[in-house]
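Interim report to the steering committee. The following record documents the input for ATP synthase F(0) complex subunit e, mitochondrial (88 residues).
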Amino acid sequence: MASTTVNVVRWTALLSGVFYGISHRRTLQKAHDAEKEHHAIHEREHLIAQAKEAWKRKQESSKDGVVTDPEDPRFDLEKLVAKWESDS
């Protein structure tokens, strides 16, 4: 049978390890949450930049009056071919 001093040391070591594990997990979780938020912010910025670029291209293509989307009811193949020939 172990003495009371050994039992106290064992329980102290066990409780110290448990509290260390809890505090370490909190630290790791906080770092992970910060990285996740950072990634989400940059992803949104990237999507906004893509949307602005797509809008800019759409505005530039609409200036010459030629619709390049074949699903659009205003699509005219002859105008599109004429535009391509003039660009070349």
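The mean pLDDT is 90. The committee is asked to note this result when reviewing the revised timeline.
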